[in-house]
Amino acid sequence: MYENNEFEVIDEDTDINMYNYTISYLKENGYNQYEISNYSKSHFECEHNILYWKCGHYIGVGPGASGYIENYRYNNVESLDEYHSKLSENKKPLSNLEKLSIEDKIQEKIFMGLRMNEGIKFEDFRNEFKIDFKEKYSKQITDLKNKKLINESITGISLTQKGREISNSVFVEFIN
What we know:
Blueprint: H1 12-28, E1 32-35, E2 38-40, H2 47-53, E3 66-69, E4 72-76, H3 80-88, E5 94-99, H4 102-115, E6 120-121, H5 122-129, H6 133-136, H7 138-146, E7 150-152, E8 156-159, H8 161-165, H9 167-175
Antiparallel strand pairs: 1-2, 3-4, 4-5, 6-8, 7-8
Helix pairs in contact: 4-9
Pfam families: HemN_C
Enzyme class: oxidoreductase
Protein name: Oxygen-independent coproporphyrinogen-III oxidase-like protein
């Protein structure tokens, strides 16, 4: 549709209004938002997605699957024939293998953590990276709190509703 110009991109205000309507409608019908774009009934959150957003390890098996183990992210070839052929030759059926640097992992942890309603936990960040998040990002935290885009507690930070609406702008503040 998009390639044939049959798809019209909506303006930002309409996008935000639709997003807020979705949140209200789902909440009225018993669904809780647990991530920027995910909702569920209580105790029915998607565990795979939560693992992904918390930068947990997972194995991708099959054509086109992706995985993340230790410091490596990979994708398998998409073609079933090529996948089968590589396995038959005792080769890994990878189309892409990327080793993540510490900086890559820090940026990903921030981006993914802020997508979750629970946000980024200072202690988790310190345990994983040996970095004091509040100290390293004190300017960003202060600026974003003043703009009412994040909440800060003793244990961490999370996006406000306004912050969720323009989340990419918030993420960039920590990454640049």
